[in-house]
Amino acid sequence: MIMHDIEFEIFGDDMQYVEILLDPMEAAVAEAGAMMYMEEGIAMETIFGDGSPRAGGIMGSLLSAGKRMITGESLFMTSFQNQHLSKKKVAFAAPYPGKIIPMYLPQYGGEIIAQKDSFLASARGVSINIAFVKKLGAGLFGGEGFIMQRLVGDGLAFVHAGGTLMERELAPGETLRVDTGCIVAFQPSIQYDIQYVGNIKSALFGGEGLFFATLRGPGRIWLQSLPFSRMADRIVSSAPGMGGKRREEGSILGGLGGLLDGDNR
Question: Is 21 buried (19+), middle (13-18) or exposed (0-12) by CB count in 10 A?
């Protein structure tokens, strides 16, 4: 597939990887550990911060690295530059089952707000900044805390969504209530807030927690059916002796069930 002169192909169904074809001297950047393979002629270099040309010297790199640390990412990223005279391939793999989403940022106004761990790789020229959630309720109870990632630039970025991907365009004023962990990304025009479930019975026994996110249009949103935190909880709860939660994730039913069946983990 060719998207605005950037050639790439996504392989796989549930465990995907993206293969990028780099022109001579062209580069891509990725999170540490995302690389699957690279052909001979591609040089790999660890860079401080996000490697964006917008960084602007040492102080800019320090600021960029500090922002990445605050968002929960590594201080370093990896650059892959094709130093050969012909085109070469480099591939990046998804960290867990799901879908890889190619996002050409100029199609969305040059900016996307994403959850902290969704970024996989990008063309050089995309910067990863902090996006502050403005509403106090969203900051305290929104799962992502006060901080999400802001992907800014004029290039192509690859974002990962767990499980099955849902992409939807919200009309002006249209609202969708979503589990906070199921949000992958949305355009900055989307209004993001947190609401209380409004029913004490549902809050205590429903297993969905006390709060959910509200996304109000206009703008495009991307949702995932399997947040990594949910998958990790299931794995831990199934492993003997690891003290994980029962199936009723957010409710008190897990504790009551443990007393009834003798499971005192």
Answer: middle
Residue 132 backbone phi and psi in degrees, to 5? -80, 130
Q: Catalogue all structural domains in the chain, each as residue range(s) with its CATH number.
A: 2-230 (3.60.160.10)
CA 54, CA 150: separation in Å to the nearest integer? 14
In the numeric block, which tokens belong to residue 139? 């900051």
Specify the pTM.
0.74
Q: Per this entry, what is the length of the chain?
A: 265
DSSP for 167-188, please give it: EEEEPTT-EEEE-GGGEEEE-T
Q: What average pLDDT score do residues 108-126 get?
A: 87
Neighbours of 176 (CB within 10 A): 15
Query: Does residue 16 sit in helix, strand or coil?
Result: coil
